[in-house]
Design goal:
CATH class of the largest domain in chain A: Alpha Beta
Order of helices and strands of chain A: HHHEEEHEEEEHHEHEEE
Helix content of chain A: 10-25%
Largest interface: A-B, 88 and 88 residues
Oligomer: homodimer
Strand content of chain A: 25-35%
CATH topology of the largest domain in chain A: Chorismate lyase
Largest sheet of chain A: 7 strands, antiparallel
Structural class of chain A: alpha+beta
Chain lengths: 279, 279
DNA sequence: AACGATTTGTTCGTATGTATC
DNA sequence: TGATACATACGAACAAATCGT
């Protein structure tokens, strides 16, 4: 009738974690200790811990113990879409945004690669065409924070956009660079936003488990020039546990200090359970 | 040296699922069969299955078996910021968007409630004030798709916005209704976007496991009137496994048919593993 | 309605391997 | 090197859910 024992143990530990009785660093008793505390077998205790691991509340380290996962302080990224400001891509923009948050931003040297056009289908190039990709890793306070890859048609490089091909940061952003150098103006863009589980590379970089417990947000931005042709494709992935976004549209008051809402007003109402009254 | 056996089994099954050898409905062999196929103990087979369950690829049903999870066809929600169109909140808007996708949209009758102002901190009301909440459930082709709650100050109702208080749909949207009735014009809004795990209510409604394997995207939209004061707060939650967004900014070409990008061009490059060259 | 067969869920025991200090 | 702690793997028994007879 009651919950199985391993769930009871997990619930008890969860309660202790959420109440703050068990916080950040090394905390949980060892399996042997828990086994005595709850008078259960080691396997049952392990099942309870496995449940908490799945929910991302604790992590186990072989030879050391089981630890409560410390929540990361989310970085709030502000995008002012209406002003036409090309939010969020240039490294200068990224750094200033993070600095406004009093945190230290770092951007890796871009890794330049040549890839088949199939790597960036949104650019709509011939199958035989090639694209240049500029890949950057971003850190905040030393912690990996986001990954970004921008794809350009090789023809842009051939027409004079040579810096696209150089493995160094373009602080003013490639958008401005392309306009100054080639006179190509970005007049709009389309973002496709989705949430998915990280692939192996992302999981390794972000230092999250590779079993999909931490989601990543992927934003694929296709930017267009004045002739409505795709100019570039920028793919950015943000792990959901450390990134939030704020978008201002139209006339809005100045940003006040916005504390993380957490679970203030969720979609749950007062107390009623789910009800299926459709229409 | 090699992967542990339960991972090998899981990988083998994952391969079969991804290759389509095992698709939608009831598929996986029983634990007893797998135990023979891989010459492993039942517990080891179960560990392999548990891994796939955690990754959301299969689900187990007691007394029946283990089944490959059918991926939902994602609904692509298009928001055109530049037109100033108040994307996504009015039920009329929602229905037409979904219909354009050739799918059947349903919206539940709003559930009206009175709540303390602390339920909607973004409105910046006195602690003693109260807010009206309008809560709606949305379905696509009969499947629960999103949850939305809009909060208004009670004073709006007292000033004449009585329909806010009635449990019936306002097809033209409350934005237009408030402008026509009270002359209050919405001039902009601020969206806070975050990804988190669903709470118990959401998990039940969306029919997803309550252990956080499926993330939800929460969009908190605070809309402002001409005097830059908060007019309303709309909280919408979308399960990530069935929703994607497209945002157009500036001048962009017409929407072509956009197949789900899936894992076309990720942030992984050709083949190189993660490298830590920061700066 | 009752029963049995099948299938997954829970719990224990035990042994051995691997990582860390 | 040894001690500690988690990881993997096997075996066994019973419970609970489901389905068909």
């Amino acid at each position: 009738m009651p919950d199985p024992m391993y769930r009871q143990i997990a619930d008890d530990l969860r309660r202790k974690i959420e109440s703050g009785e068990l916080a950040g660093g090394r905390q949980l008793p060892t399996e042997l200790e828990l086994r005595e505390q709850y008078d259960a077998s080691r396997n049952t205790v392990r099942d309870a811990i496995k449940l908490l691991v799945t929910r991302g509340m604790v992590e186990t380290r072989p030879g050391q113990g089981t630890f409560v996962v410390a929540k990361l302080d989310p970085l709030i990224i502000t995008l002012d879409w209406e002003t036409g400001f090309s939010g969020g891509e240039g490294s200068a923009y990224y750094k200033s945004e993070v600095k406004a948050d009093r945190r230290k931003a770092e951007v890796s040297v871009p890794r330049i690669e040549i890839q088949p056009s199939s790597a960036a289908p949104e650019l709509g190039l011939e199958t035989s065409a090639q694209v240049v990709s500029r890949h950057q890793q971003r850190f905040v306070d030393g912690t990996p924070w986001s990954l970004q890859t921008t794809f350009y048609s090789m023809s842009l490089v051939q027409r004079g956009g040579v810096r696209l091909f150089q493995a160094e940061d373009i602080p003013t952003g490639t958008v401005q660079y392309l306009e100054e150098t080639l006179g190509i103006k970005q007049v709009g863009w389309r973002d496709k936003i989705m949430v998915r589980t990280p692939d192996a590379t992302e999981a390794a970089f972000f230092q999250v488990p590779d079993d999909g417990r931490v989601a990543v947000m992927e934003i694929r931005r296709t930017a267009f020039d004045a002739s409505r042709k795709p100019l570039r494709l920028t793919v950015t992935t943000y792990p959901a546990d450390r990134n939030q976004f704020v978008v201002n549209v139209g006339e809005v008051p100045d940003e006040e200090v916005l504390g993380a809402p957490g679970s203030t007003a969720s979609n749950a109402s007062s107390e009623s359970a789910a009800q299926g009254e459709k229409e």
